[in-house]
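The pair is quoted verbatim below.
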Amino acid sequence: MSRLRARCPSCRTLTAVAVGPEYQCHSCGAEFAAGLVRVPRAWGTGGEAMAAAAWLDLPYPEAGVIEEESLHEQTLALAVGLPERPLVLGGCCCSHVGAVEGLARRTDRLAVVWIDAHGDLNTPASSPSGNAWGMPLRMLLDGGAVRAEDVALVAARNLGMEGVGLEISEEYIALAKSRLSPSGNRVSYSERRNA
C-alpha cells in the first residue's frame, strides 16, 4: 500500500497522486479529498457478506487493499500504511482498529465518532458469539489508542454492556442520556430549541 499513489476511480489508471492530504489524478485531472483503503475481511463466523461490502464502488482513489492472515497483521499493516486522510472501507469494524491506531500515532489526542448499532465493547470473555467484530472499540480503549471520554458512540441500539467490565461514571451516563430524545435518538439542535 502506498500513501502516495492510488488508482483513480474516474479513469481507473494508477496515476492518482497524494498532494498533501488530498489526491489528484495526473491522467484525467480529477481531485479527491481522501485515499480509500479496502479491508475485505470479517473476523468472525458468517461474515462473508460483510467482507464483500469492502468492495463497494466508491468515488475515491484506491490507495490500498489490506488482506492479511491475522487480525494482528491486518492492524499493523493498516496502521503503518495509512494515507494522510484515509477513508477505510472494511469487512467489519475490526478494520478500524488499525486506522484509529495509525491516526493516534500522528497526534497527542484523538477523538473518535463510532457509528454502529452495537457498542463493540465486548471482550473474548464477555462476547456471546466470540466474533472479534464485537470487540474493536474495546480493543482501542484498552490499548490506549483513544480515551473513553473522547469517543462518541452514535446509533447504538444495543451496547451489550452486561459483564463487559468498563468503568463508566454516573456523570458520564447522565451526560449521554441528556443528549438523547425520549425515543433514544440523539437530540438535534432544533429539537432542543423547540423544547
In short: Confidence is low (pLDDT under 50) at residues 162-169, 181-195. The chain is about 25% helix and 15% strand. The chain has one domain: 5-185.
